[in-house]
Amino acid sequence: MKIIRADKMGFCAGVRRAVLTADEALKNNKNGKVYSLGPLIHNGEALKKYEELGLKILKEDEISILNNIDTVVIRAHGVPPVIKEKLKSTG
Length: 91
Prior knowledge:
Elements: H1 13-28, E1 34-37, H2 44-53, E2 55-58, E3 71-74, H3 81-89
Parallel strand pairs: 1-2, 1-3
């Protein structure tokens, strides 16, 4: 088998933005919890790292547990407007 490695590797722009947003939220939100709405990315090793840093995965049916001091990072896939409104209503 021949393995060819791409010249450029890494996250796509949307995932890169989600990861940087999570990094910033974990760094700056010292009072509340930091969640991603669903898994932040599809990379088990990276998810484990973020879990160790304090990022929690939030399911859509768990939005009601949020406090107004929590932060929710929306992953690169985005969310429907109705979910955005549910998140906003938590404060």
